[in-house]
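Now read this:
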Amino acid sequence: MMAEKKKAGSKKMEAKKETPKQAAPVPKKAPATAAPASGKKEQTRIGVFICHCGTNIAGSMNIEAVQEYAKTIPNVGYVDNYKYMCSMPGQAVINKAIKDNKLTGVVVAACSPRLHEPTFRTATKEGGLNPFRFEMANIREQNSWVHMHDQEGSTEKAKDAIRIAVAKASLLQDLFPKAVPVEHAAMVVGAGVAGMQAALDLAAAGIKTYLIESQPSIGGRMSQLDKTFPTLDCSQCILTPKMVDVGRAANIELMTYSEVDAVEGYIGNFDVTIRKKARGVLSMPEAEAKGMVGGGCNGCGDCEAPCPVIKPNEFEVGMKPRKAIYISHPQVVPLLYTIDFDSCIKCGLCVTACGEKKAIDLEAKDEFVKVKVGTAILATGYDMFPVEKKTEWGYKKFENVISSLEFERLICASGPTSGHIIRPSDGETPKRVAFVLCAGSRDNTGNGKPYCSRFCCMYSLKHAHQIYEKIPGVQSYLFYMDIRSFGKMYEEFYYRIQDEGAKFIRGRVANILEDPATKNLHVYTDDTLLNRPVDMEVDLVVLAAAVQPKEDTDRTRKLFGVSCSMDGWLLEAHPKLNPCGTTTAGVFLAGVCQGPKDIPDTVASAEGAASAASIPIHMGEVELEPYFATCIEEKCAGCGMCVNLCPYSALALVEKEGRQVMEVTEAKCKGCGTCGGFCPGGAIWMNHFATPQIVAQIDAFLLGGEQ
């Protein structure tokens, strides 16, 4: 049956050779982007260039057979192959062939367009053609790599891919990118170490930067740490100067206790609405702006003492109380108290204590501020995995099982115990401490995370070292699957901890049980190196909890039109070639919001994102790809159905010549085709992906057969 279909397809294709397709019609009202008609029919001559990619492609198919076949495809005027078509000599082959053979379009059969489409567009342009007269056939990722042991099948599939690409290339038209101005301002969302570094770099480059942080203070997770590995520097000693620099920077407008409420616009012209949550306390500049000379909060703390409401301090992971009016820790920036209106009883004692400063407003309401920025950086950070989901380890069931973040606060001099490590059950100093690594990481059981959280091994080694510093005669046990010490001086740090006396036991902990009488804990596992079961009695267990995307990551990514991975981390445009960019032009990523990173890598990614975000701002304008929809007004019925379907809010109904028609904001349109696919009257023309072009590809696939 399939053979009969192929023969029928071949006959239809032969018939098509006799009556070649005309060039796709250009809509009457369209393109400023479409080539103007010359009145003379252009002879279609497509050049096909086949890349060997070393042996990536050539090792899995017969290049010569593919080349000979390509010569028989209608509208093909030239065929060539080269070992590395993306190289300078390879691009020179394309340039020369366009000029010598008067080609009207180019097809490169090579790798993914995500890698080299810009490269070959440039080569096409340098050959004298409009760069959008180029089409790519992916015969590597979609062919040779998945059919490496089937040379015959791979060869035939490559023929199909090239034939389909030629069908579209024959109907491509000249398109011309449009330039839009770029606002000389940027936004950074999240003020952890990544957000602060990105904001400081942008500000140093002379760019007005809005730094948005949802918490009352900047600093993020790093401000909760005691020391950093492998140098064992005090975390706050490194971080606090950076926090102060952010608070003082003239080009940074710091907006704490705020969050992004809405985002409209496109690269160069984002209109962002920021919700400033009611803080209930006026800063000194705010008070001065209201004519209250000498007023406003100076961080004295007089208001806190009389407050009768006591709540757990989230910064101290609930191990220390705070009041309804509070600062989370002594080094906050800005030094400004915050009222927790969810727990405040509005007794007014804080107002009385504040006195003449008149900094407290118990009737404060949320405010909405609109700003315009050219680019945005997302540095929203991460949350700790709720390790209580792993019930076998007894977290929140046994008092002496704590998380790694709780350990950080216990051992920190500014923490709830002033740096004294104690057992939560009785306040005694532990002498045997177990560290359970991969607590929720590398876990495919369904209630864990399948990925490696990357820095847990190293901070557990740091914790083991710290207890040797703090507690004479202590013994630490590290239960691990694999120690991943990947960074500079990390492996040396691992050996150092071994030499200090830490015991390493290879095996995933199966269960932790408590002795009710002593509150000691029994850690059960299998030692996979000694091939024997282990029952280790310890005083304290520290779970190296996995990290996961922040709870509001999905909301944030939808606001900015950014994709996410299967695990929920924000997704970069390309992991190697564009690790800081996203699929939404003008939006960049920094830090752990795109996946687990340690502090050095986080800072490096922030600097990369700041550099990338500053480029369009300093250029002053940016080119947009002309892949936008165009309305053929004569066909538009003004039904407006497409307007509500557009995920980018790029469409609107406007009044023209006494009737309503659809109009496209070209800079917002991403060319997704949703409107064009739905339009019942066929009134929407998709540049570069027009219906005649897509139909030609389908026909080439279904009716291609053997020629």
About this structure: The chain has four domains: 21-177, 185-378, 383-548, 629-686.
